Structures are given as structure tokens and as C-alpha cells.
Amino acid sequence: LIQMKKKILYIILFLILFLFISFIIYSEYSEKNFIYILINNTEIWEKNTKTWKKVNKNKIKKYESEKVNLFIDSQYRGMAYYTYGIEDNINLYDEKFNKITPTDNLVIIKSNNKYSNGNVVETNDLKTDENIISVLEKYSLPTSQNLDINKYKVDINNDGESDYLYGISNFFKENENCDKYFSIIFSVINEQIEIIESKIVDSNKQLEANVKYLKSIIDVDKDGDYELIILNTAYSQPNTYCMKKYNTKNATFENLIDCED
Q1: 95, 113, 181, 230: least surrounded by Cβ within 10 Å?
Q2: Spatial distance between the Cα atoms of 157 and 225, rounded to a whole number of angstroms
Q3: pLDDT, tens digit, 9 for 90 and up, residues 106-157
Q4: Within its chain, how far is the Cα of 82 from the centroid?
Q5: Rounded Cα distance, 205 and 179, in Å
């Protein structure tokens, strides 16, 4: 009987030790594979294992004064530091602690991945080109009007050829006799146009619509597939952001963080 009790005790102790070691290993693995994204001091996203979710600032505040990866306008700007100031406004510094002035297209990534400048180029060629005209015609929208245009050149499917991502909108532009307001994000891959996001409303619904703008294109988790960070804005409403991923295996855009509509 005593021998049996000892065996049971040893088994229990072994199980406790096994669980304890497993917890430590998982915690270290989890910590090494986490990714946090801070976007314009507005939203924070966390990826731990394979799932993305929105989290609060407490998750990333513990990394104040630690090195983070800085992207501005989709371009990698190197390592930087950040702190939270008055009313949780963010302060940015380069590696020599020179202050950096934040822009409206700022992405901070805290992870153990190593980043470098990718092949994303925001073009200065913002005229209404054939791809834009094709999309406007698809929705029976006027092809001669003032537009906000974002156009990015990027090899998004990693085939060695340049592709294009566009964001076009007339929501905040002056156009006479405008009966439709729209915001459309689309890609041109292998000369094929694909609509990623679209919002088209009658002119009397302009103030009620959520408008989406393509803000950044970054391979966030360094898996070879690009993520698209999209601004979702509306009159008298706080800005929110969402994220899509281009899956090169399936040749599809997938939702990672949903936009509120």
C-alpha cells in the first residue's frame, strides 16, 4: 500500500513538473512569435500564433523605450523608439534618439522579425489611367472627375512582374453635378482587375457612408505575402482600420481584421 502511494505521488509530481515545463516553453515560444502593430496611435493589433485581433494599449505599453520597426508610407525607416506622452499621444525617436515627427501614415511593428525595404513604390503618376477608367465604367461612374488617387507598384504575387494596387475616391473632392460618391480599392495583377473594397452611395448619403482608403502595403509577418492596411473613415466618426492579406497560394485577398461598415 505504501509503495502504491509513493508511485501515485511520483506520478502526480511528474505531471506537475511536466505541465510547469510545458507552460514555460509555450510562453517563451509565444513571446518569440508575437507581432504587435500600432497604426497612427489609433489601433493596436496582435498576432499570436496564427490569429489577428484588436487589443488595447496596455498590450504594447510595456514595450515603451524598446526598439520597434518603423514604417512610413509603406517604406521601412529602420528601428525606432516610442513613448506615450500626454493624453497617450505617441512620441517617436530614431536610434540616436532624435525626435521623429509622426505622419498620418505611420505603422509601428514590434516583433522578432527582421525587416527591410520591400518592393512597394507609391507612384507619382496620379492621372486617371486606363485601369481607373475601366473600373469607373464597370460601375457606370463618370470618367472625367476630380479624384483622390493612391497608386502603388508592387510585385504582390512574387512572380517577378510588377502589379498595381489602387485606391480611388471622390468623397472629399469638388465635382459639379455629382450624383454618386464612391471609394474603390482594386488590384491589377497580370493585367486582370480585381475589386478589393468598394463603397458607392447616392449624393444624399454622402455624410452617412464609411469611406475606405488604402494606406499601407507591408509584409507584416515576413511570410512572403503582403498585408494591406485600410483606413475606414466617416463624417463625425472616429477612424478605424482593417487589414487584408494577399494569399499567393490561393491568389485571393483574405480578411485578417474586419472593417466596420
Answers
A1: 95
A2: 8
A3: 898 988 888 877 678 877 666 678 999 999 999 999 888 888 888 999 999 9
A4: 19
A5: 10
